[in-house]
Amino acid sequence: MPTFFQELESYRQRAIPDLQPARERQKNYRAHPIDRSSPLYNDAVVDIREFGIAGENFYNRCDNPPYYVSVPGSIDRLLLRKSVATRLAAVDQKLRRCGLRLHVHDAIRPVEVQRYFHDEWMYARVQEKLPGASHEQTIAEVEKYWAAPTSSEDRPAPHSTGGAIDLTICLARNAEPLYMGSIFDDATALAHTDHFEQSKSDAFSDAEARSNRRLIYWLMIEAGFANHPNEWWHFSWGDQMWARQTGAPAAVFGPARYDAVP
């Protein structure tokens, strides 16, 4: 076994639980209260590079399958709340001691990007797949993977809060990503965090994806993050989804203000 996995093998052997209960808990999560009296409500927004965390904004790139376009309104930075970046840096340091590291695809996401995917790109893909679906049925399918754009201070999209992040794990020496069994943003059941726990396949590639999804899942869960059960790459801390998944009485983040971040 490679030395970079020896310290982390217990995570790779630990099964991800059945996440169907998490999917049920997550329903209508944007109705969860936000605690505006929390000391973290106005937590500063920071650039993750200040914390030594690597990444590149996936939506600002043009080599970003399956889109292959720099998404209108995207930014070229990766911004998070300071308390979230601090937690993430601790996970990153644990991985770096083992020859691995995090790679972040997305953090704070402008509402224009969220609107593009929710209202246009994903909406069109669902209509292609389900040509007879009503608008309501189409939106229900879209929102398995793409939250609606922020509609109010009380119901922010997760990535607008500075508490949500999309990421993977790479080899530290050459930035090669570990095999997770799907591309980032694969909006199908293949992307479900527990997909390979349910699979009966004995393929070596499926076993590797299963082990690596377990690794990222347990590292992030133990650091206090919550996972979106339909997306192996999506984790959050402090937003309404996190609060609903962890049983916290309230979220601590509303929409983030980031225009003035140096």
What do you see in this structure?
There is one protein chain. Helix content is 34%, strand content 11%. It is of the alpha+beta class. The chain has a single domain, classed as Muramoyl-pentapeptide Carboxypeptidase, domain 2. Strands 2-4-5-7-6 form a five-stranded mixed sheet, sandwiched between helices. A two-stranded antiparallel ribbon has the order 1-3. Strand 6 (226-227) and strand 7 form a beta hairpin. Helix 5 crosses helix 6. The relative contact order is 0.20. The mean pLDDT is 93.
Brief summary of the model shown:
With 262 residues, the chain is an alpha+beta fold. Helix content is 34%, strand content 11%. It has a single domain (3-246), classed as Muramoyl-pentapeptide Carboxypeptidase, domain 2.
Strand order of the largest sheet: 2-4-5-7-6
CATH topology: Muramoyl-pentapeptide Carboxypeptidase, domain 2
Counting DSSP H or I runs of 4 or more residues, the number of helices is 9
Helical content band = 25-40%
Spell out the blueprint of helices and strands.
Elements: H1 3-6, H2 9-13, H3 20-26, E1 45-47, E2 54-55, E3 79-81, H4 82-96, E4 100-106, H5 111-129, H6 135-142, E5 164-171, H7 195-198, H8 204-222, E6 226-227, E7 234-236, H9 240-246
Helix pairs in contact: 5-6
